[in-house]
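Quick one:
INPUT:
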């Protein structure tokens, strides 16, 4: 595909998501609930990471590994939120 590593260009990830995360956030705002978007942890300004150090984050195109889920939970601060 002309890229090094397995990271996914943000433009590809956004296209494949077809606006669904933005739609869910808008619905959440209307319903006055928080919507958690894993991409906010997995993606930076240019790419969405598929690895964190030695840990592989995805099992396949849309499912996280245990390490990937742990990374998202920690990145979103869910553990702390659930303890409160």
């Amino acid at each position: 595909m002309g890229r090094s590593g397995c990271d996914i260009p943000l433009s590809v990830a956004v296209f494949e998501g077809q606006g669904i995360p933005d739609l869910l956030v808008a619905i959440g705002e209307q319903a006055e609930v928080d919507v958690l978007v894993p991409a906010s942890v997995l993606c930076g300004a240019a790419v969405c990471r598929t690895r964190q150090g030695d840990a592989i984050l995805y099992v396949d195109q849309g499912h996280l590994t245990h390490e990937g889920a742990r990374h998202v939970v920690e990145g979103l601060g869910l553990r702390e939120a659930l303890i409160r």
